[in-house]
Design goal:
It is a single chain. The chain has 548 residues and is of the alpha/beta class. The chain has 21 helices and 21 strands. The strands form five sheets. Strands 3-2-4-5-7-6 form a six-stranded parallel beta sheet, with helices on both faces. Strands 15-14-16-17-19-18 form a six-stranded parallel beta sheet, sandwiched between helices. A five-stranded parallel beta sheet has the order 10-9-11-12-13, sandwiched between helices. Strand 2, helix 2 and strand 3 form a beta-alpha-beta unit. Helix 3 packs parallel to helix 4, helix 8 packs across helix 12 and helix 10 runs parallel beside helix 12.
């Protein structure tokens, strides 16, 4: 008879086999022996102040490492607390595995502590959700969870483990351990469709490329640059696609996206859904006569909201390699020159506000100052609405994975989880978080987690004392004084909150104070908050801080 091990040890060994270095959790009795298994297998345990943060951290870990992030949450409210993070990962196609506790099988439906069935809650927001009913089957269920998360279009999975299954003990020698349980090959595009797409791009007068998260997840940044050069096309990026093309690349464009969509005759969509961010592909935002080439690993997203001319199911990296080989060399000099002129014009217009000395501080001035601290060794986490949208257009994001934001679900509160993931998965990097003041209130108490684990995260809070995206729309529609539920405290000192938790705080009211305050924050070596008072109604921008 061999060594007797419990379910916590089994789960930890399967996590270790995936090369995952840390789990993210909030302590709970239903799952506590998983912690023991992690200690036995040298897996780090980061315990947060809310399960939502643990889920966001698992999401962030997957984005940085290309490995499945793992969140471990206790039964009942532990699982319900992580739901928002799981939904965000599902919409962002992040491969994470959530292990949830459950009351013992022998006490199902008896009213035991935190006894509630949550599979029906998790199934709509995961790729796969199951309960395991036998301890010896845990290796296979963990393999299934990892396989589902990391194949096809990535996404979260959920494994519910009743406590008597988790604490059950089995003979180690009687277990079968899955080793090779998921494929790693890349799917190529149909060669005939690739030829047709290359011909359309080559013969187009005004082609453009929209590169999204699929480019990032398929590690296709080099192939994107090579394709853009060969095809001579402007490339715009969104979501995790930011950073997959360097901003000094002559094919990189950002400020002319709106006129490009309205005028392009061929639009290439790479690994991003045609959703609200792309105006659903509808006119007048898109040229109604434009031919659409849509490439995605998931064929269910191809043709959604907008008919395609050519739809290609493929790994983005492979499709770009094929297109570059097929296209040879194209030229769209006149179109590129026209768009670059629009970019330069927009940049000149916004530079006035980026250099503004106005008080309260203009958000574009704040973004300009933040940009001075972002280099290739900085990971930037955007957690908020308006200020994050502006920061995304201003900060120098030049590497894949350097920028992380919620993605299409638009979840506020992702920041602290993403930051702690960056701190453990890329400890050699600086981590800078751009917060809205509303967002800070959601998971700001996880600065305590930063302090406990000595994570020198620097947060810059753009404090406009309101939920600005909502405030602007309400005021425009209903008039001044009729903006309930949008105003926040004038005297909220988020910097003092962080100081009280053991971090470093800075309070900024004048633009000339910004740079020194951020310098001190980084130099402190502590988790830090730079609380910057911004203009709630800045000139030169409109609702949602979209640049005019």
């Amino acid at each position: 008879m061999g060594n007797m091990i419990d379910g916590g040890e089994i789960i930890a060994r399967m996590i270790k086999q995936e090369g995952v270095s840390h789990i993210f959790t909030l302590s709970g009795g239903h799952v506590q022996n998983i912690y023991e298994g992690c200690l036995n297998n040298d897996i780090g345990i980061i315990d947060t102040r809310h399960e939502q943060s643990a889920g966001h951290a698992a999401d962030g870990y997957s984005r940085i490492t290309f490995k499945p992030g793992v969140a471990v949450v206790t039964a009942g409210p532990g699982v319900t607390d992580v739901v928002t993070a799981v939904a965000n990962a599902y919409q962002a196609s992040s491969p994470m595995v959530v292990i949830g506790g459950r009351s013992p099988l022998r006490q199902y439906d008896m009213g035991s502590l935190q006894d509630i069935e949550l599979l029906d809650v998790m199934k709509p927001i995961t790729k796969w959700a199951q309960t395991v009913y036998e301890t010896r089957r845990l290796p296979y269920y963990m393999a299934m969870a990892f396989r589902e998360a990391m194949t096809g279009r990535y996404g979260p999975t959920f494994l519910q483990v009743p406590s008597d299954v988790l604490f059950g003990r089995v003979d180690e020698d009687s277990l079968e351990w899955p080793r090779n349980y998921r494929v790693t090959g890349e799917i190529m595009g149909d060669p005939e469709l690739i030829k047709q797409a290359a011909k359309l791009i080559r013969e187009a007068e005004k082609p453009m490329v929209m590169a999204g998260s699929g480019v990032f997840w398929h590690r296709a940044h080099r192939e994107l640059a090579e394709f853009a050069r060969a095809a001579d096309v402007p490339v715009y990026t969104n979501a995790m696609g930011r950073g997959t093309l360097r901003q000094d690349n002559p094919n990189f464009f950002s400020l002319s996206r709106k006129p490009a969509f309205a005028q392009a005759d061929v639009i290439v969509i790479l690994g991003t859904p045609i959703d609200f961010r792309l105006k659903y592909g509808r006119p007048p935002a898109w040229n109604p006569a434009a031919k659409v080439i849509q490439i995605d690993i998931d064929p269910r997203d191809i043709g959604r909201n907008r008919d395609f001319t050519i739809g290609i199911e493929a790994n983005i990296r492979q499709a770009l390699l094929q297109l570059t080989s097929e296209i040879g060399k194209a030229e769209h000099k006149e179109w590129m020159t026209y768009l670059r002129g629009l970019e330069n014009q927009a940049d000149e217009q916004r530079s006035y506000f980026m250099n503004s000395d106005a008080v309260p501080i203009h958000p574009l001035r704040l973004c300009k100052e933040i940009a001075e601290f972002v280099d290739d060794d900085t990971i930037v986490v955007g957690d908020g609405g308006d200020i994050v949208a502006l920061a995304a257009s201003v900060l120098p994001i030049n590497n894949p994975g350097q920028w992380m934001d919620p993605g299409p679900f638009g979840t506020l509160g992702v920041g602290t989880g993403f930051c702690m993931a960056a701190a453990v998965a890329a400890p050699e990097k600086k981590v800078l978080m751009v917060n809205g003041d509303g967002t800070f209130g959601l998971n700001g108490f996880d600065f305590d987690t930063f302090v406990r684990f000595k994570m020198p995260i620097v947060s810059v809070v753009g404090n406009d004392r309101c939920w600005h995206q909502i405030y602007v729309g309400q005021k425009a529609q209903y008039g001044p004084g009729r903006t309930p539920a949008t105003l926040l405290g004038d005297n909220a000192r988020y910097d003092k909150v962080v100081e009280g938790l053991g971090g470093h705080g800075e309070f900024v009211e004048h633009p000339e104070q910004i740079r020194a305050a951020i310098e001190r924050a980084f130099a402190s070596g502590k988790p830090a908050c730079v609380n910057v008072i911004m203009d709630p109604e800045p000139a030169g921008v409109k609702g949602g801080y979209e640049f005019k």
